[in-house]
Amino acid sequence: MVEIVVVQMMLDHMSETHSSVPFANNPTCGHPSVVVKNIPEVNARLWKIKHLVEITPITFPQGPPQEGDYGGTFLKENGEFVVSPRLQVDSARIEETAKFIGDESKMDGPTLKKQLRLRWLNPFNLD
């Protein structure tokens, strides 16, 4: 089994002190996290940028998830992979969402924008 680690980009000292940098004071938006495999190819790339990243191994405090538990899981910033049954999504809800997205009778964004623009330009056209 391949071990998986979380790589989190760290901002340099200048971005933490200047407010002109977007998301500098928000701890959740300024540090993107990436999940990568712990294999030699990835490790060689991370070695080159080790001064820019923080590597955190993923731990399973409740044990590794079973085959059907992936829908109710989340990954914390400290690398804990938590299984929560409260986050499990009902399969009927997923099917209804897929049916709604694929529905041909609803208008997509560009079509709706075009139709509303035509109504704005021709307000009293009853066609």
The dominant shape is elongated
Strand content: 15-25%
Q: Can you summarize the main beta sheet?
A: 3 strands, antiparallel
Helical element count?
4
Protein name: 39S ribosomal protein L30, mitochondrial
Q: How would you describe the overall organization of this protein?
A:
The structure is a single chain. This protein is α+β, with helices and mostly antiparallel strands and 127 residues long. The protein folds into two domains: 1-57, no CATH class; 64-121, no CATH class. Helices cover 30% and strands 17% of the residues. It has a three-stranded antiparallel beta sheet with strand order 2-1-3, with no helix packed on it. Strands 4-5 form a two-stranded antiparallel ribbon. The longest helix is centred in the C-terminal third of the chain and has 13 residues, at 109-121. The chain is elongated and about 65 Å long. Residues 11-19 have low confidence and may be disordered.
